[in-house]
Amino acid sequence: MTIVPEIVASLTNVNYKQYLCQKLENYSWNDLQKAIESDTSFTLEKENKTKLAISWWVTPKRTRSYPFARVYDTLGFSGKRVTIIPVIKDEGFDGDRDFIQYDTFSLMSLLGIHVIISYYEDAEKNTDYRNKITNQRFDLSHVRENLTEVCSSNNNPSVWNAIQLKKIHEIGKAALDRYDRISKNTDTLLHSKKSAIKKLQKMSEQFMSHSRELAQNAQTRESLTIQPKENLEGQKAKLTIKDHQGGKYYWTCDEVTICDGEIYLIEGKHSSKSLPAEDDIKDGLLKLMLYSNLEQIQHDGKNFKKIPVLKLTSVNKNLNTHNLDIIKKLKAEAKNNNLKIKLNDKFLDLN
């Protein structure tokens, strides 16, 4: 039986400067639909020049569609930042069904992001499967209503997100009603509504504990699994982070190395090309934002000094001009945030 190391740490706040944020396209308030269809992250401007930086998640599960990369791109914006997350994503009986989790709210609050929980109201049949849907679209009237509230609200992200949490059951029911309609309109069998209602009820009553039970189970599975986008030498570890707002994050550190009172927390990204995809890199950097701000790192009852590392490996070692530009920005980000970058088998000189 594989014994996976367990690390615990605390987190008070996140201080971090990003260098890889893409330039956000600006859209007028009435062009929200165009913005969502065109970009994963963007700015939206009201008539009074109020601007929001917005990202949106395809599914509430963080391990699909790179939602962390989308959020990352909004973090360089100095005004209010928002992320739109579907409370439920049902792909049909032949696909997956995911529900939003409690600690997503805690993480977004730490990063200064206002969460809007919404739902899909329309979709098309996936012609490759008997019971699967695709091209799901948000209820934009619901999203706009919430965006307007964010603009006028004086609540900080933590307070705003706590209020959103209380709406999960209500918004979840609205989502299931829309999925009923989508199922009929597309002649597609979806997952059991009865089981979803039970889950929503449990989420409403015991959202924190239920989400964390699922997260812990996922952490254990992930800690024993090697992903195709990982090229690792060391051992995986369970990393449990507690924040000052009561949030708990059950993450898996891709690789850990312990040496002379230091613990290297390594997030690995691998590619068959010359460098991992930019979204993959940003996904890793968002996790390293937390790692770089960890306090009281403990393993086996002993305290350690943290060394956060982004490890990039590739089959093709030749870097093109675009790759070199990313490396240059990565080095600046690492230097200013006390990270290390390991490219294939060498640590980069950050000076």
Q: What is the end-to-end distance?
A: 43 Å
Order of helices and strands: EEHEEHEEEHEEEHHHHEEEHEEHEE
Give me the count of strands: 17
Helicity level, as a percent range? 25-40%
Contiguous low-pLDDT stretches (5 residues minimum) are none
Largest sheet: 6 strands, mixed, barrel
Q: What overall geometry do the principal axes of the alpha carbons give?
A: globular
What is the mean predicted local confidence, pLDDT?
89
Q: Looking across the biggest beta sheet, what order are the strands in?
A: 1-11-12-13-15-14
Q: Can you count the helices?
A: 9
* Secondary-structure content class: alpha/beta
Q: How much beta, percentage-wise?
A: 25-35%
> Could you tell me the radius of gyration in angstroms?
21 Å
Write up this protein.
39% of the residues are buried. Helix 3 packs antiparallel against helix 5 and helix 6 packs across helix 7. The longest helix is centred in the middle third of the chain and has 31 residues, at 193-223. The chain has helices at residues 32-38, 67-72, 102-110, 140-152, 157-165, 168-186, 193-223, 278-291, 321-337; strands spanning 6-11, 25-28, 41-45, 51-56, 80-86, 88-90, 97-99, 113-118, 120-125, 133-138, 235-243, 248-259, 262-271, 295-299, 302-314, 340-343, 346-347. It contains 9 helices and 17 strands. The chain has 351 residues and is of the alpha/beta class.
